[in-house]
Amino acid sequence: MKKVQQHYDEIADIYDDRYDGNRGRYYHGHISDHVMSVLPRGGFLLDIGCGTGLFVERYIEEGGRAVGLDISPGMVRHGRQRCPESGFFVGTAEVLPFRDAAFDALASLLAFSYVPDPEAMLRECYRVLKPGGRIAVCTLSRTVFTSLVPVIYQVGEKVGLKKVGVGDFGEHYYTNGEIAGLFREAGFEGVSVSRCSFAHLNLADPVFALARKVEPFVEENLPYLAYNVCAGGKKPEG
Ligand SMILES: C[S@@+](CC[C@H](N)C(=O)[O-])C[C@H]1O[C@@H](n2cnc3c(N)ncnc32)[C@H](O)[C@@H]1O
Asked: Among 123, 161, 188, 223, which residue's Cβ finds the most Cβ atoms within 10 Å?
């Protein structure tokens, strides 16, 4: 875990460059759309693994209030700059420093695959959600494409590549069944799982343009080719 934290501290100052261009904005916006479609608008949200606060900002733009938590102090610093009115906390997903039933909504984007104990994280999510509150987790899924990513990232670390996410972190990429099972075991009901993102921002320009065109078709008809899995659920009303 220390290694993940160090990595994100090291790349915190360049993280937003990744999402500044058209492709990055589109990619992150698309994931955020999927996450928003599962969550109530206008509530109080906790974003776990919030990074530089991209989704905290989005949730506020949609009329809600939001706070973020991240293991990397460097990323949290950028979150505070992006959304000075929101609270940003340094901490780990498995031990949330919040009281029971504090939030209407929980989100986690592109961070779940790093969490060594996902059961503990989801137990904590359940605890801090109000009855009837909703959770959405979007993370890299296991596909024919992403099964190679950890190997590529391990090689990247060996040759000293300083790029967002590049390193040997023992990430786990989830199948639909795995993530749905974890949500149900944690006690969430109405569990939904969808796939999103065929146009990954790491693709070369012309391939990205093509992938973006066919993305709606892939998500609808060939979902197992999409890069991310987005799981949603609700804490029972009590
Ligand atoms: C790829 S970034 C995603 C950041 C942000 N959610 C976004 O969508 O831009 C992954 C983030 O997860 C954080 N992270 C990794 N493991 C974590 C853990 N166990 N607890 C909290 N945050 C964690 C990292 O520090 C990093 O900021």
From this structure: 188
